[in-house]
Design a protein that fits this description.
By secondary structure, the chain is α/β, with parallel strands linked by helices. Helix content is 49%, strand content 15%. The protein has a single domain, classed as HUPs (Rossmann fold). Helix 4 crosses helix 5.
């Protein structure tokens, strides 16, 4: 009976440890997604999302609108739009985002475009190269709450100093 009891305690202990690990990860993602650090930085980085024939989707537009608000508040002098294109696309996410912001009143001299990445990591590698060549390293990343922590960790791994400002108006929902 003692052996059976130990085995039961071990199984229960492992289940509790696993639950704690998963729960702490969920809480960390949730807390990062709620971040809205609007300190002064070198650049606002808008993570790309789908565009259709040069027009950002509602999700991407929400990110771009949030970046525009930060830019008008003077958080950074530059906005970097990111994202490549899918096979068959005529436009890139980065290019579509820059056009959208330019039409809202952001001067082209305040826009940088990273349009080679097709994943979060690829886009942020391009952003890091683009910004570091200009002596910039402090960024605020604008994206969805669920995407914020991953973006931050990748950007930090690439040597950027990162704060987050997740969009609150995306159709993807809120945290």
């Amino acid at each position: 009976m003692t052996r059976m009891r130990r085995a039961l305690f071990a199984v229960v202990g492992l289940c509790l440890a696993g639950t704690l690990l998963v729960s702490s990860n969920i809480i960390q993602v949730w807390l990062s997604g709620r971040a809205n650090d609007t300190v002064s930085v070198d650049a606002i980085v808008v993570m790309g999302a789908a565009q259709y024939d040069g027009r950002p989707t509602a999700q991407f537009s929400a990110r771009l609108d949030h970046a525009f608000e930060l830019w008008t508040q003077g958080v950074a002098p530059i906005i970097v739009t990111t994202g490549g294109n899918q096979p068959g696309d005529r436009f890139t996410e980065g290019g579509s985002g820059a056009k959208y912001l330019n039409e809202r009143g952001v001067d082209s001299s305040s826009l940088l475009i990273e349009e080679t990445g097709s994943t979060t990591r690829e886009s942020l590698v391009g952003v890091a190269d683009l910004l570091k060549s200009r002596g910039a390293e402090r960024v605020v990343i604008v994206t969805e709450p669920f995407h914020a922590l991953r973006s931050k960790l990748i950007a930090q791994d690439l040597g950027l100093i990162v704060t987050l400002s997740s969009t609150r108006t995306s159709p993807m929902g809120h945290s």
